[in-house]
Design brief:
The structure holds 2 protein chains of 2 kinds. Chain A is flat, with a radius of gyration of 21 Å. Helices cover about 75% and strands about 0% of the residues of chain A. In chain A, α1 crosses α7. By secondary structure, chain A is mainly α. Chain B is α+β, with helices and mostly antiparallel strands. Chain B has 2 domains: about 150 residues; about 130 residues, Glucose Permease (Domain IIA), CATH 2.70.70.10. Chain B is built from 12 helices and 12 strands. In chain B, the strands form 2 sheets. In chain B, strands 1, 4, 5, 6, 7, 8, 9, 10, 11 and 12 form a 10-stranded antiparallel sheet that branches. Chain B is globular and about 80 Å long. Classes of the chains: A mainly alpha, B alpha+beta. At the A-B interface, α1, α2, α4 and α5 of A face α1, α2, α8 and β6 of B.
Chain lengths: ~220, ~350
């Protein structure tokens, strides 16, 4: 389960990073032009700029994986009905507990990282559903099943995969994200400012990817057309 | 108990799906696959890590052994885009083994064309162009038609349909992303064919009789005095000569620096870019769309230059290649000795 969750978030992060590559190249192009006009030297060749854009995207993706995907490996299933050990301070364990605490003691990471994880998970679910649809459609077609059956069957499977991934795993990834930022905020809870800004760098890394995931990498409607 | 088991099974299936997608869709998965292949002593099919951001298309590794301009086309003054694409398709087709040619033959048969003619060095380019033209009419996209020739009609039609369903135009890059795992090699072939086809259709930036004063390749740099790769060709033209775009495209750079002087970079799509250096005046600006043959600048002697000339550079998949290898009439001006060595000579970088 934790490895599956890690894989899910990693797929979402890559789907988002893949859409950012072109934008990073645009930024490098303009930075290079600006440096040219300032320093009067053509700093980078076309191939170097493309390499740099992709290398930066890869570095960004791996860093984002470390921030949002790696914590998923710490996910553990617990039976909600099991008796909890008595402790002086009861740690919040359920989704509702964690959300309540995020509302009562908001920090940037508590507020932003779970929705960002949700956006990444949705992009991942779309990627996975697309792969399921393609693999199923082409294998059914090769078995000489007419389009009239292969099309709806593969589309149904894709929608089932989209729903199953989003609901069976998606909420767990968001829950784990909430748990991880909660631990982060608790560890930095000495002053209000430190608690509020705990995990800011990681959240800043993930947020543009989450936006890209929501805007460019999650074509949910395409499975219904 | 029953529901708990069913849920467990569903969780297992979803976890397996996630791992499958991560293994084939992410650089992290590629690293894991390489590690697994290394441990098992087998060959990994994972792409290089940075290729995961280009959908495996229009990369330098596809054209590193780009063939020179097809000798059969040398007699022709200019190729139409369809003819140039035919040569690009054939140049790629000729590298495929028998199994890899099966999807293309099936597509040819679909349109009542003779798939065996695709193998013929003389008839192959025109036949390939005919197959792609017929497929493009049905699929309403040239990129999808070229993908069909190498991936098979059904996968290409499916992927083009998915791209359209998401509200986008079916470019090869998007088609590649919409295909399930297992099509990396055919997509690379399609990409190579489109890149070469676009490069073969390029015109020349100045009058074609213009003397080449310094060819592409390693040379003793005239100002630095040490061996360095000359990444384009130097064309001897007086200051103020009109420089024309060698194909339609978008101006990606219009700037000035100490090395290249006033420089233009034009993106022609499908992994093909051209650069024009040492100009005295630039007539276009960044982001502007230019047409083939449009005057884009006036040649000059700006930047690191020993005399008036135009440095013309061609890049395929972001790496410089010899522009003379992709231009028939200019190639006709090159000495016969150069022609003799070029068919088997790999492109230098």
């Amino acid at each position: 389960m934790p490895v599956g969750l890690f894989a899910l978030v990693a797929v979402g992060v890559h789907a988002a990073a893949d859409t950012l590559d072109g934008r990073i190249l645009w930024v490098i192009d303009h930075a290079n032009s600006w440096l040219n006009s300032l320093l009067g030297a053509w700093g980078l060749t076309n191939s170097q700029r493309t390499f740099l854009a992709r290398a930066l995207t890869l570095a960004w993706e791996l860093a984002a994986d470390a921030v949002v995907a790696l914590p998923a490996l710490g996910y553990r299933e617990e039976d909600a009905s099991a008796r909890r050990p008595r402790r002086l301070v009861q740690k919040p364990r359920t989704f509702a507990d964690l959300v309540r605490r995020a509302v009562r003691q908001p920090t940037l990471s508590r507020l932003l990282r779970p929705p960002a994880t949700a956006a990444l998970v949705l992009a991942a679910a779309c990627s996975i559903a697309g792969m399921v649809q393609g693999a199923l459609f082409l294998s059914l077609r090769s078995e000489a099943l007419p389009d009239a059956f292969a099309g709806p069957l593969s589309r149904g499977a894709a929608i089932a995969a989209l729903v199953a991934v989003s609901f069976a795993f998606g909420w767990r990834a968001v829950l784990r994200s909430l748990q991880s930022v909660d631990q982060l905020a608790e560890a930095a809870a000495k002053t209000r400012l430190r608690a509020f800004s705990a995990g800011l760098l990681g959240t800043g890394l993930v947020l543009p990817l989450a936006l890209a995931a929501a805007l460019d990498a999650a074509p949910v409607w395409a499975f219904f057309r | 108990m029953f529901f708990r088991r069913t849920r467990g099974l569903l969780d297992f299936a979803v976890a397996a799906l996630c791992l499958w997608a991560a293994a084939y869709h992410t650089p992290v998965g590629a690293l894991a696959r390489r590690l697994g292949a290394w441990a098992a002593g087998t060959r990994s099919s994972a792409q290089p890590l940075l290729a995961y951001y280009s959908a495996g298309v229009y990369d330098a590794n596809e054209v590193q052994e780009a063939p020179p301009f097809p000798p059969g086309a040398l007699a022709q003054a200019d190729l139409t885009p369809a003819e140039a694409l035919g040569y690009g398709l054939y140049a790629t087709w000729a590298r495929l083994d028998a199994a890899e040619r099966q999807p293309g033959r099936a597509v040819a048969q679909r349109y009542g064309l003779d798939g065996a003619r695709l193998d013929d060095p003389k008839a192959g380019p025109a036949e390939a162009a005919r197959v792609v033209e017929a497929a493009a009419k049905e699929l309403d996209s040239e990129d999808a038609a070229v993908a069909a020739l190498f991936c098979g009609f059904e996968p290409a039609a499916y992927a083009a349909g998915r791209v359209r369903a998401a509200g986008a135009a079916p470019t090869l890059e998007r088609i590649s992303r919409a295909l399930p795992p297992g099509f990396a090699d055919p997509v690379t072939s399609a990409s190579r064919a489109l890149t070469l086809g676009t490069a073969y259709a390029l015109a020349w930036p100045v009058p074609e009789a213009t003397r080449v004063t310094s060819p592409f390749g390693y040379r003793e740099h005239p100002m630095l005095g040490r061996p360095q790769l000359h990444t384009g060709v130097d064309l001897a033209v007086p200051v103020g000569t009109e420089v024309r775009a060698t194909a339609s495209g978008i101006v990606r750079r219009a700037s000035e620096d100490a090395l290249n002087g006033r420089v233009l970079l034009i993106d022609h799509g499908r992994g093909v870019t051209t650069a024009y250096c040492h100009n005295s005046e630039l007539e276009v600006r960044v982001g502007q769309a230019v047409a083939r043959g449009e005057v884009i600048s006036r040649s000059g002697n700006t930047g690191r230059s020993t005399g008036p000339h135009l440095h013309y550079q061609l890049e395929l998949g972001h790496s410089p290649v010899d522009p003379l290898l992709f231009h028939a009439r200019a190639m006709g001006l090159v000495a016969a000795a150069d022609l003799a060595r070029s068919p088997s000579r790999p492109t230098e970088y």
